[in-house]
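Subject: sequence -> structure tokens, single chain

Hey, anyone have a minute? Need the predicted structure for the following. Not urgent.
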Amino acid sequence: MFDKLSASVGIDLGTANSLVYVKGKGIILREPSVVAVEKNTGEILAIGEEAQKMIGRTPENIIAIRPLKEGVISDFDMTEEMIRHFLNKAIGKALIFRPRVMICIPAEITDVQRRSVQVAAEQAGAKRVDLIEEPLAAAIGAGLPVGEAVGNMVVDIGGGTCDVAVISLGGIVTSESLSVAGNTFDNDISTYIKRVHRLIIGERTAEEVKIKIGAAYVGARNLNMEIRGRDMIMGMPKNITVETEEIAKAVNESINKVISCIRRVLDKTPPELSADILDRGIVLTGGGSLLYGLDEVIRRETGGIPTIIAEDPLSCVAIGTGKALEEKKSTASKIYSWIFF
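Reply:
Had a minute. Here:
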């Protein structure tokens, strides 16, 4: 009865994009984590996809805000409104009971940051809020046997954070979070083009370059692309052509930071689990893992440990959050039935 009158919702609340999983339906919502606000009055004009379209194209009185930075809340009120928008869009307002929500969070955040996520979701309309670490959710979503006594290593590269973790027996054995991820790669590209070509480009153009011709190391592939921006000297629109080799050089420092983070986690991993990882490999999830050649450079720099990109890296965290929510609810229902019936 309660299942019919309420809903169970899993939310991958990301720095760049948010995904919503509803029990029995799967992932039903994918939207950018952006809020467009009228600067003078504070009125919210758009959230999600509509707000994303405004980035770089708004007049001075309208600003596009990303309320999460490096995986944690940077603007509490905007985060609350964004969660409310996603819940209303995903499940509507017709249900009698407020939804139960599970939200994923970076592995290495403070208790205060954890609590801020819970409070924001509760004030947005959730009856109960549970939290799950992103690398654990990613591993579940990727189909890894996280409940078994074997070592599973997952590297989740989202928009704002990179979470590296070794998981065994349903828990995180060792982990580390890094504020280097997909958005960092975009910033690296923008900075490089500004410094070398004296051209200013927007974040959407930088992301497009990363996807279409980007690479994690020089020599991974050889492509080129024409882009348009504003000339720094003349102040006029200008077209230039950039090549893959340039993009690989631009992101090189950030890639090295990700690799160093992986090495540190491997160094802290118990020997028995390290042997499992050597056999089973490293699994990459998150949108940042799709940077061309990233799996290959990680394999080379970790001494040949097999590195695999998950089947659906963009959805792994949301799928894992939904599965964890369903499993937890199923367990609670069995206990309830045993006590009362």
